[in-house]
């Protein structure tokens, strides 16, 4: 009861990832619902502003609010498509697979370039046995002697 060590449940990485994914999906759906409510309120306001108040008849075509609502409907449908359809195809697993593919391509390309550099630019190798004892003890470069 009065012990100093508290028992805390640790979340393993897989559960943490599932939790983060669930939070992300909830945020997406919440944003979609906000967009839908804003769409409904905005559409009602556009319908009230144009025919009832007659605002915009002088500058635009007579039923301009219909075009505005249709464009907004298209934008809402794109948002809906992104949340419910595209998320199934391009989720975290898809990103991980793409990342692994790109890393593999990069590793093979680096290996090819390293092989090319090794074959074209071979470093001269000098054996320490071939150096004379005198050359090892001389601090001056060979052309100064």
Automatic annotation (TrEMBL):
<feature type="region of interest" description="Disordered">
    <location>
        <begin position="123"/>
        <end position="145"/>
    </location>
</feature>
<keyword id="KW-0812">Transmembrane</keyword>
<feature type="transmembrane region" description="Helical">
    <location>
        <begin position="32"/>
        <end position="52"/>
    </location>
</feature>
<dbReference type="InterPro" id="IPR025698">
    <property type="entry name" value="2TM_dom"/>
</dbReference>
<feature type="domain" description="2TM">
    <location>
        <begin position="21"/>
        <end position="102"/>
    </location>
</feature>
<protein>
    <recommendedName>
        <fullName>2TM domain-containing protein</fullName>
    </recommendedName>
</protein>
<keyword id="KW-1133">Transmembrane helix</keyword>
<dbReference type="Pfam" id="PF13239">
    <property type="entry name" value="2TM"/>
</dbReference>
<feature type="transmembrane region" description="Helical">
    <location>
        <begin position="64"/>
        <end position="85"/>
    </location>
</feature>
<keyword id="KW-0472">Membrane</keyword>
């Amino acid at each position: 009861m009065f012990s100093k060590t508290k028992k805390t449940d640790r979340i393993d990485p897989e559960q943490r990832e599932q939790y983060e994914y669930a939070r992300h999906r909830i945020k997406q759906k919440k944003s979609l619902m906000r967009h839908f409510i804003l769409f409904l309120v905005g559409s009602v306001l556009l319908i009230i502003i144009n025919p009832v108040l007659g605002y915009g008849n002088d500058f635009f075509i007579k039923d301009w609010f219909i075009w505005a609502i249709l464009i907004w409907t298209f934008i809402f449908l794109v948002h809906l498509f992104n949340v419910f359809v595209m998320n199934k195809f391009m989720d975290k697993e898809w990103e991980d697979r793409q990342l692994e593919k790109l890393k593999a391509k990069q590793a093979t390309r680096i290996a090819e370039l390293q092989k090319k550099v090794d074959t074209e630019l071979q470093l001269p190798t000098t054996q320490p046995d071939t150096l004379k004892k005198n050359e090892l003890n001389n601090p001056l470069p060979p052309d100064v002697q």
